[in-house]
Amino acid sequence: MKTTALLLFMAVFMAAPVLSMAQTNPVPKGYKLKKEEDYKKYEADVLKCIEWYDNTPLNKYPAIRKEVEAFLMAWHQGSPTVTIVFGEMAVKCVEENPTLLLTYMNGWTKFVLQGGDDEANTAGALLAALEHTITTYSNPSIGFEKSKQLDKLQKARDKGTLKGMAEKEASQYVKK
Q1: Average pLDDT across the chain, whole number
Q2: Which domain holds residue 27?
């Protein structure tokens, strides 16, 4: 009896990581992003994937991370409602640490999907994307490599000058 109970306990214990990984995958099964209306119906899933991506260490769940990255990149690239601008500050961060590309895109997207207008308020979207990137980067449990550029932007945020920097940069992209 003890052997049976021990084997049952070990089987459950060994299966737990597999079961929990399956439960944590936020990517919608069988998603299709072909028509404009497809993007709208996945907006809630995009926000769930951003949340998962922002809170999961880079070295955890690599298979799920790849699925989340693929879904988010496909959605970002085809979305008719979100137009992400990569200004000089973002480009410098991504050049230094390419892992931050999706984090920046996620911040911009989150701004728009939560009610922001990136066309009317490019500075607001840019600021939201930069702050999102800084916040995610600053979380030591995520495991991003050090970035001099992001450390500089973090200091600007802490001094209260990041908003002005974002407004100045965004003014270059506003349609006149």
Answers
A1: 86
A2: 2-170
Residue 175: predicted pLDDT: 53
| pTM of the full structure | 0.82
Find the DSSP H helices in the chain.
Answer: 2-24, 36-41, 43-55, 62-78, 88-96, 100-113, 122-138, 148-159, 162-170
**Using CB atoms within 10 A of its CB, is residue 134 exposed (0-12), middle (13-18) or buried (19+)?**
buried
Residue 162 lies in a domain: yes
Residue 74 lies in a domain: yes
Q: What is the mean pLDDT of residues 26-32?
A: 96
- Mean pLDDT in residue range 38-65: 96
> Is residue 150 a contact partner of residue 135, using CB atoms and an 8 Å limit?
no
For the chain, the domain total comes to 1
Asked if 158 contacts 122 with a C-beta cutoff of 8 angstroms, the reply is no
**Total residue length of the chain:** 176
Does residue 175 lie within any of the structural domains? Answer: no
> Among residues 148, 136, 132, which one has the least CA distance to residue 97?
148
39 located within any domain: yes
For the record, the structure tokens of 57 come out as 């260490």
- Which of 133, 150, 149 has the alpha carbon at shortest distance from 53? 133
| Whole-number pLDDT of residue 87 | 87
Q: How far is CA 63 from CA 2, 59, 86, in A?
A: 36, 10, 28
